[in-house]
Amino acid sequence: MAERRDRVGIGWRAELAAGIFAHLDRVDCIELIADDHFRASRRQLRALRTLAGQVPMMLHGVTAGLASVEPPEERRLARMARLLEAVQPESWSEHLAFVRAGGVEIGHLAAPPRSEAGIDAAARNIRRAATIVGAMPAMENVATLIDPPASTMDEPSWVAGILAASEAPLLLDLHNLYANAVNFGADPAVLLLQLPLDRVRTVHVSGGHWIPEPGGTGRKRLLDDHVHDVPPEVFALLTLLAKQAPQPLDVILERDGAYPTFACLLTQLDALRAALATGRAAAAMRAVA
Amino acid sequence: MSAAALETFLARLYTDADLRARFDVDPEGEARGAGLSPAESAALAACDRIGLQMAADSFSRKRAQHRRPGLPFYRRIVNRLLRR
Lengths: 289, 84
Prior knowledge:
The structure holds 2 protein chains of 2 kinds.
Chain A: E1 7-11, H1 17-22, E2 30-33, H2 42-54, E3 57-60, H3 74-87, E4 91-95, E5 98-101, E6 104-110, H4 116-133, E7 138-140, H5 155-166, E8 170-173, H6 174-183, H7 188-194, E9 200-205, E10 208-212, E11 220-224, H8 232-244, E12 250-253, H9 262-288
Parallel strand pairs in A: 1-2, 1-12, 2-3, 3-4, 4-7, 7-8, 8-9, 9-12
Antiparallel strand pairs in A: 5-6, 10-11
Helix pairs in contact in A: 4-5, 7-8, 8-9
Chain B: H1 3-15, H2 17-25, H3 27-33, H4 38-45, H5 49-66, H6 73-83
């Protein structure tokens, strides 16, 4: 049996489909936004299953809201289960976020208050999702422009607590981690090293842009938007992760708009491989020393 | 103390500009009025107001992106048939 290796791939978007198909020799894996395909026809599902047979595929959910004290809506998880059954991806993932509460739809991924009660509820929701869908999701850390109000824990302790209680793997989004660090005055490398890196299975990388704070403070915060190139600091975090986490990693480049040429995206994938290789080499040197 | 009430109040703060305006004036009063405990209300009153506004603006933009003009009735029927 071949030894599992690091893989570098990209988020599947219709705008990138032709480029991905033309360069399957340089795209190790892809990730589909699951919610975009919940209403797919049988023909579309067959096409996705064929695609999953051609290139390793992961499904990524965005609307389950598993990091909530409310239980998840079972109809959403049933849709995810049907999609997994039809498409047969390698794995699936969701976010450590809440997206609705008390009937109010926030419209995006919101960081909940980080507390012990939140850990228990999120772990319960993740286990419930795993039961309904038939596979444990990898759980992703989210970016936030506000340090979650009424929190009693820091982010690494909260994430580690949920992963330990649910036994879920971590989908580590390095740009989300970087954005939270710079927005709230933490050292990104220190934040990374405080996470349970042995649980990382998949990595997201993307870019964002700085937006000014309202009220004329003169300060800015980093918004994770997936429409800018990956900044150098995130490449450095990937190298550090590769140095510290010996298990094979799947790294996914997320791009949701302002698409550059596919050649440019391939260059970024190569740069991600180089960042991984640098970290692996540093780990090997450390082992020899 | 209710974690569910706290999450609901946060979701409303992120999506309701009128509530945010009232919260700016009397944060603890609004939180207590939503059934939150004195400790939760005090914690919310101490929250990062700039971050709250930025997060709310960001979520509002996301909701606007999700809203798409509805298709005419006949197009919905045709699309439904094509999906089979």
